[in-house]
Design brief:
Blueprint: H1 4-7, H2 18-25, E1 33-34, H3 46-55, H4 68-78, E2 85-88, H5 91-102, E3 108-112, H6 117-125, E4 129-133, H7 142-148, E5 153-159, H8 171-185, E6 190-194, H9 209-215, E7 219-224, E8 237-241, H10 243-252, H11 260-271, H12 273-296, E9 301-302, E10 308-312, H13 316-325, E11 328-329, E12 331-332, E13 341-345, H14 349-363
Parallel strand pairs: 1-11, 3-4, 3-5, 5-6, 6-7
Antiparallel strand pairs: 2-8, 7-8, 9-10, 10-13, 12-13
Helix pairs in contact: 3-11, 4-11, 5-6, 5-10, 7-8, 12-14
The chain binds 4'-deoxy-4'-aminopyridoxal-5'-phosphate.
Length: 364
């Protein structure tokens, strides 16, 4: 039998395949709009796709365990030595690797109420104790999180921007919390700063988290190519930290955790600045379209800095079911403690419009 702490895990609720939903609701699969997983509605950069396809020729061999070329590209982009980088099978993998390396029964992890589900899952799978800090206006209360650290705490998870709420903590607030944590606990507590949605931030809000990695030896910044870079299905994420942390992470990761086509696509995606700019711009307009659209229906929403919007609909199970009948898939977040809300990913303009029209119909 699995340990009790594993048996106690509430499993991650993944959506059904589109074809399955289409059958269930008697819909044409091609007509279904999926705005449920914070994916890039543009797909991936054609250059990344071409690179992935070309790399299939080498995929009978194991991938490069150290991701030499991808790390070179990342080292250049972020101005750090390759020893400061770890690759993950999505950034989810980086988060789990951090939990594997630093958590165990008898220690604790701190994270915010309404944060990314994987913090809870990874903490629980490691047998560690959870310290869940109440949210402030749906976002992280970073000062309270720093203050909540206990003697047995080894990890703090911060999502910025956060999922599922889309909130953002400015650079000064993050820096203040990091300073407080480092002053009080030194390198005994590792902070994971999960910046999966970083590329969607407007330029005036972006701050240099890599500079913070240089200042704080207990900081691990996590990034992904699943969102703005459009590689969600290929699974590429990475972490940036000082070598002492990276060394510990490398001890517990799978040796071949990022596949051959994924590494090749990631290198091409990082170089396709034009695609990234298009993704950013499409998302900026889509956020505006969705936010204005739900506000016009009289609904409350949390202003978002990601590629999704959290919308208060009241009877979320009913609204979700009615949206499904109309071929629109969004994400219920009851499992995250938000039973009256739905999370809607930004799609193409016409997809956002389909969602808004269906929602208007459902709400009468
Ligand atoms: N962090 C946050 C905050 C996320 O929302 C997600 C994706 N839902 C991830 C990490 C993990 O994404 P991936 O594994 O695809 O990089």
């Amino acid at each position: 039998p699995a340990p009790e702490y594993v048996q106690a895990i509430a499993p991650y609720q993944a959506g059904k395949p589109i074809e399955e939903l289409a059958r269930e609701f008697g819909l044409d699969p091609a007509s279904i709009v999926k705005l449920a997983s914070n994916e890039n509605p543009l797909g991936m950069s054609p250059k990344a796709r071409d690179a992935a396809v070309a790399a299939l020729a080498d995929a009978a061999r194991y991938p490069d365990s150290n991701g030499y070329y991808l790390k070179q590209a990342l080292a250049q982009k972020y101005g750090v030595p390759v020893e400061w980088l770890i690759l993950g099978n999505g950034s989810n993998d980086v988060l789990e690797i951090a939990a594997d390396a630093f958590l165990a029964p008898g220690v604790s992890a701190v994270y915010s109420q309404y944060a990314f589900t994987v913090y809870r899952l990874a903490t629980q799978a490691s047998g560690a104790r959870h310290i869940v800090v109440p949210a402030r206006e749906y976002g992280h209360d970073l000062d309270a999180m720093a203050a909540a650290i206990a003697d047995d705490t080894r990890l703090v998870f911060i999502a910025n921007p956060n999922n599922p709420t889309g909130t953002f903590a400015p650079g000064e607030a993050v820096e203040r919390a990091l300073q407080a944590i480092h002053d009080a606990h030194g390198t005994r507590v590792v902070v994971v700063l999960d910046e999966a949605y970083n590329e969607y931030l407007p330029p005036e809000l972006r701050f240099d988290s890599v500079a913070l990695v240089r200042r704080f030896p207990n900081l691990l910044v996590s990034r992904t190519l699943s969102k703005a870079y459009g590689l969600a299905g290929l699974r590429v994420g990475f972490g940036i930290a000082q070598p002492a942390i990276i060394d510990m992470l490398n001890r517990v990761r799978q040796p071949f955790n990022v596949g051959v086509p994924a590494q090749a696509a990631a290198i091409a995606a990082l170089a396709d600045h034009e695609f990234l700019a298009r993704s950013y711009e499409l998302n900026r307009r889509g956020l505006q379209q969705l936010s204005e659209g739900v506000a016009a229906l009289g609904l409350t929403y949390v202003p978002s800095y990601g590629n999704f919007v959290l919308v208060h609909v009241g009877d979320a199970p009913r609204v979700n079911l009615e949206l499904l009948k109309r071929g629109v898939i969004v994400r219920p977040v009851a499992g995250d403690g938000l039973p009256e809300w739905l999370r809607v990913s930004v799609g193409l303009p016409e997809e956002n419009a389909r969602f808004l029209a269906a929602l208007r119909e459902v709400l009468g």
